Amino acid sequence: MSLRTVVVWLFAFLFGFQSSNAQFTSCNFIELTKCQATFNDALNIPANLDWKTVPSLRLNVEGLYETSNTTGLLSVCRAFKEFKTCFSTGATGYSNCISVLGLLIDGNFQSTMITPKQAFDYVKLFTQFDFACGAGMAPFMNSYACMSQVFKSQRTTLNSCLTTFDNSVASDPKEACAYGANAQQCYSQPFMTACGQQAAWWGCEYERMGVSVAYPQCTSNYCQLVTSG
């Protein structure tokens, strides 16, 4: 996410907040720290991985997708479910923390010192978990042996899709939706090549859901699953 995009977001948010009776609640970082620790412990990944180290967090968690049986994704989904229910205020506490603005601004409307990119990357990753453990679980399970190999053998390619999107948006944020569509195609292609149409839809939707965190206006970006009639 570019700094320019964040500035526009914050201006619109603060103007809208002051013009309404809405109440903004920032992330409770004490609880987020506790819930992140529980998540990491459940997956046996390094304890220091959190919203400030998202590339490493992603690498460690998605590394579990590489397991050539269903236990990898299932273990991630169990830990994710526990993470979502860990907050004392339930779904509200989770939503306040899996929110770019909730991570960037504290209760006094001051900066939390988390960078825009850290906030976006963290929320993107957990939004992708939500998909993988929800609508995306059955397609992954149907082709887990093949899809796990894509994560294992095509990690560099998949990471390149993410990096290209980030760099493109940073240089030209007005074209974010076009770059998002490119990222979806880029991310889905290794799954299409190795595993077929259903897996390609999964890869496309996994990336689309993540990008939509910062660019919900890109409603024309969608992933199509072609089925034989």
Please give a structural write-up:
- Keywords: Signal.
- With about 230 residues, the protein is an all-alpha fold.
- The protein has one domain.
- Helices cover about 65% and strands about 0% of the residues.
- It has helices spanning about 5-20, 30-45, 55-65, 70-85, 90-95, 100-105, 115-130, 135-140, 145-155, 155-170, 175-195, 195-210.
- The longest helix is centred in the C-terminal third of the chain and has 20 residues, at about 175-195.
List the helices and strands and how they pair.
Blueprint: H1 3-18, H2 29-43, H3 54-63, H4 71-84, H5 91-97, H6 100-104, H7 116-132, H8 137-142, H9 144-153, H10 155-171, H11 176-195, H12 197-211
Helix pairs in contact: 2-4, 4-7, 7-12, 10-11, 11-12
Compose a concise summary of this entry.
With 229 residues, this protein is mainly α. The protein has helices spanning 3-18, 29-43, 54-63, 71-84, 91-97, 100-104, 116-132, 137-142, 144-153, 155-171, 176-195, 197-211.
